[in-house]
Amino acid sequence: MPQVKKEDIRLAILDASHALFLEKGYVDTTMVQIAKRAGISHANIYSYFTAKLQVFFCVYEAWFKARMAALEADVMAAHGAHARMRTLLGGVLIQIPRLDNGFSHNLVQALATVRPGDPYDSSLLQWFREHLSGMLSACAPSLAQDGVRRARLVDVLVLTFDGCLVNHHVNPASLPDAAMLEEFVAAFLSGEPTESAAVAPVAQGAQGAQAATPVVPSGSAAAA
Question: Rounded to two decimals, what is the model's pTM?
Answer without folding.
Answer: 0.82
